[in-house]
Amino acid sequence: PVVYLYRAMGSIIEEPGTERSRSITDLFRHEQFYHGIIMKTDAEALLKKEGDFVLRKTEHYSGVIVLCLSVRTDGEKDTNKSYFVDPSHKETSISKLITYYINTNTPLTLSTNAKLKKSMDRPPWVIDHDSIYIIRKIAPNIGTFSTVYTAKYGNKKGNEIVVAKALKSEANRDTRCKFMKEARMMRYCDHPNVLKILGVALHYFPIIIVMEWCEGGTMSLYLKKNGK
């Protein structure tokens, strides 16, 4: 089973439209164990052995975004803004709290005896927002809750021209789940005639799917211009 610990402390709670500069996760977004707004299903797929864990953001209730520590084998609020799973031991940061549980081999909860043994690094398809430079909007009406742009994506190939599909911040949980399922389906599509997904930016809103750029445009546009 996978143990889920929500709300490691009160100040991490944020609204879905929170601006990047105000996000508490900026304090530890460089940590490889932090996977951003990765879906529960995708997180579980990474946790293979007992003690494997990831830290992610999720919508816990009524549109409020909280942190969730997912462990393979409960958080509480603290008005002093310290972080803890068990009130008997507190740390000044999430990173220090996780390091403590790894180094001491202390169970997170006595009822489950779940322990942190190995953090799961972010998979290659989880990318940084900072690596995406939006150029212009190309398809504003592609969907009610998403907008498509041409963009530059900084990767090992340099600055590559790509398509960036951004989910609007006002999208609800169901819409975000559908958006992430679309990204998952694209990750498993590997065909020379299908555009490849290059990654998904998940650290904060908006969630962005980055895809290969197609010079010819959409199939429907090509057929309108050139016939059958």
TrEMBL record:
Keywords: ATP-binding, Kinase, Nucleotide-binding, SH2 domain, Transferase, Tyrosine-protein kinase
CDD domains: SH2_Fps_family (cd10361)
Top EC group: transferase
Pfam short name (any one): SH2
EC number: 2.7.10.2
Gene Ontology MF annotations: ATP binding; non-membrane spanning protein tyrosine kinase activity
Family note: Belongs to the protein kinase superfamily. Tyr protein kinase family.
Record's protein name: Tyrosine-protein kinase
Species for this entry: Pristionchus entomophagus
